[in-house]
Design a protein that fits this description.
This protein is an alpha+beta fold and 265 residues long. It has 2 helices and 11 strands. A hairpin with an 8-residue loop joins strand 6 and strand 7. The longest helix is centred in the C-terminal third of the chain and has 34 residues. It is elongated, with a radius of gyration of 29 Å.
C-alpha cells in the first residue's frame, strides 16, 4: 500500500513538472516571436564629390538587422582612363584614395571603407535618433569626380561595369509585434540630392578635365513582413526560464514532501 502511494506521488510530481515545463516553453516561443518588416534603401550613383555626405532620409533604429551591397565604378577625373571601382579600386594611389565610405550609427565607428562591411549582417546598437546614413569617398580632389564620360577605367577595371551603387537591406522589428501583428510606419522613402559643394583640393598628378556631377536618387522599397524568432532573445528568455523551472520543481518537491509527511502521521 505504501509503495503504491509513493508511486502515485512520484507520478503526480513528474506529471506536474512536465506540465509546467511545457507551459513555460510554449510561453517562451510565443514571447520571442517577432515580426520583421524587410525593405531596401536603393542608392544608385552614391555621392563622390565630397569627403562625406549625410543622407538624412535613410534612418536606422536600434535592433535593425542590416546588410550592405555595393559595386560599380566612379569617374575619378584626370587624363586617360580614369574610372575606378567604387568598392575595391586598383591602380596608383588606391592605397589612400578612391574607396567608397559608409557610416551607419550603431554599427560602424564613424566612416569606414565600404568593402569592410560587405557580406555580413549587423544588428544596430543603441542610437540617438535621428540616426541616419552617411556615405563618403576617399580622394584629394573632388572637383572632377562623378559619373560622366564612362571609360573602361584604369587597367580596364571598369570594362562592362556600370555606375556605382549602394543597397542597404534592413529587417526591422515591428514594435509590439509579439502575438499582436501591429504595424509600424516607415518614413524613409524619398529622393536625395547630395550637396553640390566642392571638397578639399590638392594635386595628385592628374590633369583635371571637368565634370558633370551625378545626382543620387534613393528609394526605400517595402518587401515583406516576416515572422521570426530571434535566437538571441529566445536564448536569453530560456536562460531565465531555466531558473524559474528549477524554482517550480523545488516547490513541487516541497509540496510532495509535505503531503508524504502528513500521510505518514
Amino acid at each position: 500500500m505504501k509503495l503504491r502511494l509513493t508511486q502515485s506521488r512520484l507520478s503526480f510530481f513528474f506529471a506536474s513538472y512536465a506540465f509546467v515545463s511545457a507551459l513555460l516553453i510554449f510561453a517562451a516561443v510565443d514571447i520571442s516571436a517577432q515580426q520583421l518588416q524587410t525593405f531596401t534603401y536603393d542608392i544608385p550613383q552614391p555621392p563622390v564629390t565630397n569627403a562625406q555626405t549625410p543622407l538624412q532620409n535613410y534612418t536606422f533604429n536600434q535592433g535593425d538587422q542590416v546588410s550592405i551591397e555595393a559595386g560599380g565604378c566612379v569617374q575619378t577625373g584626370g587624363r586617360g582612363k580614369t574610372w575606378k571601382l567604387y568598392v575595391d579600386p586598383s591602380g596608383p594611389n588606391t592605397d589612400r584614395f578612391y574607396h567608397g565610405l559608409i557610416e551607419i550609427p550603431g554599427v560602424t565607428d564613424g566612416l569606414v571603407r565600404i568593402n569592410s562591411v560587405l557580406g555580413r549582417t549587423f544588428t544596430v546598437g543603441p542610437v540617438n535618433p535621428p540616426a541616419y546614413l552617411t556615405l563618403g569617398y576617399e580622394d584629394n580632389d573632388y572637383t572632377d569626380n562623378g559619373y560622366y564620360s564612362h571609360d573602361d577605367g584604369t587597367d580596364n577595371q571598369c570594362l562592362n561595369v556600370g555606375d556605382a551603387y549602394v543597397k542597404i537591406h534592413i529587417a526591422r522589428p515591428i514594435v509590439g509585434s509579439a502575438g499582436t501583428g501591429s504595424q509600424s510606419t516607415l518614413s524613409n522613402a524619398g529622393t536625395v540630392q547630395p550637396p553640390a559643394g566642392v571638397g578639399s583640393q590638392s594635386t595628385d598628378g592628374d590633369t583635371n578635365t571637368g565634370k558633370q556631377s551625378g545626382g543620387v536618387s534613393g528609394q526605400s522599397t517595402n518587401s515583406n513582413t516576416d515572422t521570426a524568432k530571434p535566437n538571441g532573445g529566445f536564448i536569453q528568455f530560456m536562460s531565465s526560464t531555466a531558473g524559474l523551472l528549477t524554482a517550480v520543481a523545488a516547490l513541487i518537491t516541497a509540496v510532495a514532501g509535505l503531503v508524504a509527511l502528513r500521510s505518514k502521521s
